[in-house]
């Protein structure tokens, strides 16, 4: 297997007027190409910080992060970030929202735009391309947000609790959709979540972090049968894994 | 089977009530105006109030006619309009630019914060004598007055709008690799258009306050000049007539901006 992402002894200390806080200490793990990885941990352990580090939005105090061997965070162009809320721009229609990454990156080629439109077609949102975000349901908006991260064709997707703002019904189906889209586009994904079932139903590999300062506590590979999160939730193995990870988090 | 296009009884009732409500509000508005003017006129006519002090609608109309025909009323209107519009454009333009600058640099913002607070609290009319000495007793002083009254509010409103932009949206753009200029262009400016519209609405009012106040202080022409002059020589008809014209002009300018808002919303929806 080819390593896509690797963190080596990553530490992050940040300063506040009152104190010096070590958020992450000697964090090391890697993620293979094509894997769906989840990172879970107690709340406030710095899960989102790990994603920001990987995305190059902040720099580690010590240690090294490389994506496909590239260590310079400024050259990390092959990743897509998906946030808790869809963060679609209300003044742009769906089509212009998904063109946004292309505009920022200065990609003007017709094929890139056509590719973006074909993604809309493929995932059933083509008819809404001229609509504005407030005319779409929460689930649809989150799907648009995923397509927006896919248009610049990133290798690695970073998902920061992307379903937490949805109601529980929508959540399951959007979770299923997002999983299928990511798998069919053959992307590598790292999901940060506090929801154990979400992590088990979506991931090939689960990393459990310790409380702050965060480091790897344990790694699980839940090889549950089923080709989608909903199918996996139906498997008898699911609850066994749930209990295992729940215990790990609450020791 | 009922036809699908037919409205239900309740629906028709609701729609009728809505129409009635709308109509009655418009009717009451007009009625209130006519009633007030009627009572004013009647009281003045019958000597219950002294028209020398209160003027009256018919005298205002007569005065307006005279002003337009015999005196150069359009000239006075033109002067005030010119001062207001120029002051408004400068206040809004400079205010917007300064707000952008303050958004761009946290440091400049923090350094200038106390100065803006002081300038905001200061009653600008206190600067009157200084402005007259610096800019002379003419249009320039009045335009500057309109400008200085408008600019602080323009800066503060706009800056709050810029700073209220969702931090996560900025994070998103940064994850695409956007630089600060792109964040400004793609997010901050288009995202703060509603704030810009409300800033323009507030600034129109401010510009009128500034220009009229400026004319009260120093002027030889303009509506504010006519009002002050009318007051001094006890020509209440002139004061009232000028005030009426002022009302109309200020409303027109406000409507102009409200129309601009509608155009922007319509443009967005197309």
Entry keywords:
heterodimer, A: 251 residues, alpha/beta, Rossmann fold, 2 domains, three-stranded antiparallel beta sheet, 24% strand, globular, B: 270 residues, mainly alpha, MetI-like fold, 83% helix, flat
Structure description:
The complex is a heterodimer of chains A (251) and B (270). Chain A is 36% helix and 24% strand. Chain A is an alpha/beta fold. Chain A folds into 2 domains: 1-78 and 156-167 and 188-251, Rossmann fold; 86-154, no CATH class. The longest helix of chain A is centred in the last third of the chain and has 17 residues, at 168-184. The two termini of chain A are 32 Å apart. Chain B is mainly alpha-helical. Chain B folds into 2 domains: 9-49; 62-268, MetI-like (MetI-like fold, Orthogonal Bundle), CATH 1.10.3720. Helix content of chain B is 83%, strand content 0%. Chain B has helices spanning 9-45, 51-54, 57-69, 73-104, 106-121, 128-135, 139-163, 167-175, 180-191, 193-217, 223-232, 236-268. The model of chain B has no long low-confidence stretch (mean pLDDT 90). Chain A binds chain B through residues 55, 57, 77, 79-81, 83-85, 87, 89, 91, 100-101, 103-105, 132, 152, 158, and chain B through 166, 168-169, 171-178, 182, 186-187, 190-191, 193, 268-269.
